[in-house]
Amino acid sequence: MSNQEQHGPAVIEADSFSDNDSTYTGSLGEASYTTSITSSAFNYQMVADITHTMRENTFWYVLAPLPSLPICLIPPSPTMNKNKIAWTCEHPESEVIGNDLSPIQPAWIPPNCRFEVDDFEQPWSYSQPFDYIHGRELEGSIRDHDRLFRQALENLKPGGWFEIASIEVNSYSDDDTHLKAQGMLDGVKGLHEASKKFGKAMDTVHTWADRIEKAGFVNVHEDIYKLPQSPWPKNPKLKELGKYHQVNMFEAVGPYTYALFSRVLGWQREEIEVLTAAMRNDLRDLSKHLYTKVHIIIAQKPE
Question: Which SUPFAM superfamilies match (predicted)?
């Protein structure tokens, strides 16, 4: 059986705000949610999609114990291109291959990093196995999970590591205030329905650890973190994470909903705009103590 570990407080304590308070300086106002957050808020590095500001000085990009000279494959992810480059700059002894569906890479990349335009769900045809394979934010991008995990196993060196991380497409609370967030509830329900009809479900991350183990991996370990969806927590670190993820959610609501709701569920644009406005209003309302969960799974190919 895979080993699972829950991190953070069992119950996140909320800060003191008035009901429906969106005027708190750390929350996003109505006029401009991307400009109301200071530039310093974007000065961060990602640790398995949990953010830390530059003053932390030390950054961790992976949790798996890697060899000193890794050859790495990193499949596509909206968040990963800068981290691929940062990793190769800090580890010039490594060789990193980034895989993307489209040529969206920056003009300059380090000499030990290269990008390939390919579909990671098709058969892999690499000439040599990897020390490490990393996937991030692939929830809703995978049609056949078992095939993907088998291909990852087949393309690792004996003793090599596979790491995959994703945020749940969901909203929770410890005090049932998420039940008042009808916009978020309706949006999540629709995303799950549409993504299943499309064939790439957005509610699978909780099954990945078991699937990875069944594929033949050993030393499977899953870390689960609560990630606030707005800056409502009292804890300063969680509040800051909530601030970042609130921006992330505001920017993701449209891209996540428009194609699936219109092409799969048959919604009109006006209906989608009403829903996304309701979802953003729920994210602004700090009396609704919304969070989601981050799953990070590491696993090793047998020696």
Answer: S-adenosyl-L-methionine-dependent methyltransferases
Give me the residue spans of the domains in the chain: 3-300
Global pTM value:
0.79
The structural architecture, per CATH, of the domain 3-300 is: 3-Layer(aba) Sandwich (3.40)
Angle at 34 between CA 30 and CA 35, to 5 degrees: 90
Q: Establish how many alpha carbons lie within 13 A of residue 25's alpha carbon, considering only the half-sphere containing its beta carbon.
A: 2
Q: What is the pLDDT of residues 88-137, one digit of tens each?
A: 556 676 777 766 666 655 666 777 776 666 677 888 888 889 888 888 88
Phi, psi at 71, each rounded to 5°: -105, 115
Mean pLDDT (the chain, rounded):
81
Q: Which residue from 62, 25, 58 is spatially nearest to 41, judged by alpha carbons? A: 25
What single-letter amino acid sits at 115? F
Strand 95-100 to 71-74 pairing: parallel
Tally helices (H) and strands (E) across the chain.
6, 10
Residues in CB range of 63: below 8 A, 6 or more apart: 48, 163, 223, 296, 298
User: Is the sign of the CA dihedral 34, 38, 41, 42 positive or negative?
Assistant: positive
Single out the residue of 134, 204, 139, 137 nearest to residue 163, CA to CA: 134
Q: pLDDT tens digits, residue range 86-100?
A: 555 566 767 777 666
Is residue 50 a contact partner of residue 166, using CB atoms and an 8 Å limit?
no
> What was the pLDDT predicted at 19?
47
Tokens standing for 174?
A: 């410890």
